[in-house]
Design a protein that fits this description.
Blueprint: H1 8-21, H2 27-42, H3 52-64, H4 69-88, H5 113-126, H6 134-147, H7 151-155, E1 162-163, E2 168-171, E3 182-185, H8 188-199, E4 209-210, E5 213-214, H9 219-229, H10 236-250, H11 255-262, H12 267-273, H13 278-327, H14 333-342, H15 355-368
Antiparallel strand pairs: 1-2, 2-3, 4-5
Helix pairs in contact: 1-2, 1-4, 2-4, 5-6, 5-9, 6-10, 10-11, 13-15
């Protein structure tokens, strides 16, 4: 039996219950979408009476208030999930047509190694001021740049996650977006930094802390440092994740191995994070040229071989003509070659179809006259 008077707000409550039961990490954002946007706009409507026109009106209102199409899509996805759950529970008979906006292309942006080094130098030069702990931010960015971990994962780095003997850090499944543990080997600069942070860890076990308190945000100081270093500050920490993926690809690391380091579950998403720089494209063009160049050299070599064969035949025929001329009482052989050069203007040129032998035969007959 369907409940004719079921309202949209009751269906949205089903979504919140579903997210709570399954422990989905995005519940916080879903609650914001429901409480701040969907319930005020559509919550009082009877679910069976909601039409496509109501959804389109909601989209127009949200755009008029300055909401991005991506944000509206996330809200509509929650609304669509609410109607699907209502049909599964047999609370409603139908659901309206809900069309999302076209999703934009994946974001682009990564930092070259010289940009990363500039950020590090400026951050460490700031020192540990009261509200500007430069070395702390530099260490967080260092770990994010090499590991590809998300900001929340980096800020929560705990000493219990680190196996010092094996020199690895294991992100627990409960802290990872995909609910799978993630392993990152600690080497080089990152291991040196982790060793230093382990010696000064907070009583709670956090490696990154401000006077033993958790670091909530580094956004403002990162924007300041990026401005000083003249690098792009938009989506800064997520650009570090893209930088890690790009560097893994440039270094020749297999995609499957790179995905285990960054935590990507599909090759498509991993490839979206891999930024194809102009230098990589330039390298591809050079490879094409190197592939084609031997072929271009090979074809002229064949033509050169044919020309050299003809020259050899001409030299042999000229030698025979010179010997015949010497026996007839003419000047030595070097004078015959001079004659060949000087007589090229006056002597009629043989047709190409007549061949070289016919031309030499004419020359010999001139001597015997």
């Amino acid at each position: 039996m369907t409940h004719v008077g079921v309202k949209v707000s009751e269906l949205l409550a089903l979504v919140q219950r579903d997210y709570s039961i399954n422990g989905k990490r995005s519940k916080y954002n879903v609650d914001l979408y429901i409480n701040n946007q969907l319930i005020p706009a559509l919550g009082a409507r009877v679910a069976n009476h909601v039409r496509k026109s109501h959804v389109e009106h909601y989209k127009a209102q949200r755009k008029a208030k300055g909401a991005s199409e991506v944000t509206i899509n996330r809200e509509l996805a929650v609304l669509k999930r609410a109607f699907n759950l209502g049909i599964e529970d047999e609370l409603i008979e139908r659901k309206p047509t809900i069309k999302l906006f076209t999703e934009p292309e994946p974001r682009e942006g990564h930092y070259e190694h010289d940009e990363f080094n500039r950020f590090q130098d400026i951050a460490r030069a700031l020192g540990a001021r009261q509200n500007y702990d430069g070395p702390l931010v530099a260490d967080i960015v260092l770990f994010g740049y090499y590991s590809g971990w998300r900001l929340r994962e980096c800020l929560g780095l705990h000493k219990d996650w680190i196996r010092v003997k094996d020199r690895v850090v294991i992100l627990p499944a409960s802290k990872h977006k995909t609910k799978r543990p993630k392993v990152y080997p600690l080497e080089g600069k990152v291991w040196e930094m982790v060793e230093r942070r382990l010696a000064a860890a907070a009583p709670s076990g956090l490696l990154f802390h401000r006077r033993n308190r958790p670091v909530k945000s580094i956004r403002r100081i990162c924007m300041t440092i990026c401005c000083t270093a003249k690098i792009n500050s938009e989506h800064f920490f997520h650009n570090l994740r893209r930088s890690c993926t790009t560097n893994l690809d440039r270094a020749g690391v297999e995609q499957s191995t790179g995905m285990k380091i960054t935590g990507h579950t599909t090759s498509k998403v991993y490839e979206n994070y891999n930024q194809h720089s102009i230098e990589r494209l330039r390298l591809a063009v050079r490879k094409v040229e190197e592939y084609l160049e031997p072929r271009e050299q090979e074809e002229p070599s064949k033509a050169t071989t044919e020309i050299s064969t003809q020259e050899k035949q001409l030299r042999d025929q000229t030698k025979k003509a010179t010997e015949m001329a010497e026996r007839a009482g003419f000047e030595p052989a070097n004078r015959v070659s001079d004659y060949l050069i000087s007589s090229q203007v006056d002597a009629p040129k043989p047709l190409e179809s007549e061949g070289i032998l016919v031309g030499v035969g004419r020359f010999i007959r001139r001597f015997w006259k």
